[in-house]
Design a protein that fits this description.
The protein is an all-alpha fold and 263 residues long. The chain is 70% helix and 0% strand.
């Protein structure tokens, strides 16, 4: 009978990396497969009900396999952190390829981002919902309806805010997810540190409730429902706050990237 693959993971990793042992590879997939279910479950809470969680899991398995193939245990980076970024990237890449978000919704997201950028540049502060609605020429109720619709499409990781449409393997890995290559890349390390600094500044400028939602969701691992219970509001309200925070962060990071690009 095959022994429990968790018994000695270091030996399993060594066997796989040294000889590409297929049994070791299979053992690693089995050991770390719960990560796929975890990531798929987290992402599914922000997706329409028509998106099947089982499909997300199947997409994520490819990300897990990719992570196992490319991970170097000698670098001293925790595999779970590295794998979660790869799994999430694989799922999001597949969803993007399916183009499940309607073009009209994408256009609305860009319009709201543009309004935030314009108002923050002119007001030198965080604009209110009423000011954003006026900038867009819509009612505040219409803006809230847009945010509600966008809340079902705001599946994104922080590094994607920074590098937009780049391919997953070509873009820098964001905070806590530096690509695991054999040799240290000084440029990549610098860019990662710069990204984290810019992101921290952008988060710090968020309104207090949006900052709290971002911290609880991305850093404490709470679901939107759990955050609602903590803050004493409905899950749909937390979803709106999360969407607004993501839009603000995207707008600020894209503005920073534009400003730092040589002309």
């Amino acid at each position: 009978m095959r022994s429990d693959p968790r018994a000695d993971l270091s030996a399993v990793w060594a066997a796989f990396k040294a000889h590409a042992d297929p049994e070791a590879r299979e053992s690693l997939i089995i050991v770390y497969s719960p990560l796929v279910k975890y990531v798929a479950g987290r992402l599914s809470s922000s997706l329409p009900q028509t998106v099947d969680t089982g499909d997300l899991i199947s997409y994520g398995v490819f990300g897990l396999i990719d992570a196992i193939e490319k991970f170097d245990p000698e670098r001293g980076i925790k595999f779970e952190t590295y794998a979660i970024a790869r799994i999430k990237g694989a799922i999001i890449d597949e969803l993007r390829a399916m183009d499940w978000v309607p073009r009209s919704v994408r256009n609305r997201a860009r319009e709201i981002e543009a309004a935030y950028i314009a108002l923050e540049n002119s007001l030198r502060r965080v604009p209110s919902d009423a000011e954003v609605a006026a900038e867009m020429g819509v009612s505040e109720r219409d803006l809230q309806d847009m945010l509600t619709r966008l809340s079902y499409t705001s599946v994104i990781s922080f590094e994607e805010m920074w590098v937009g449409g780049a391919e997953r393997d070509d873009r820098q890995e964001g905070a806590g997810a530096i690509a695991d290559e054999r040799a240290d890349d000084p440029v990549q390390i610098f860019e990662s540190e710069e990204f984290k600094s810019i992101l921290a500044g952008a988060i710090d400028r968020l309104p207090e409730r949006e900052k709290t939602v971002i911290a609880l969701y991305y850093y404490e691992g709470l679901t939107l429902k759990e955050i609602g219970a903590v803050l004493g509001v409905t899950e749909s309200r937390i979803s709106q706050l999360h969407t607004k925070a993501v839009i603000r962060l995207r707008a600020r990071l894209q503005a920073s990237q534009t400003a730092s690009t040589p002309i």
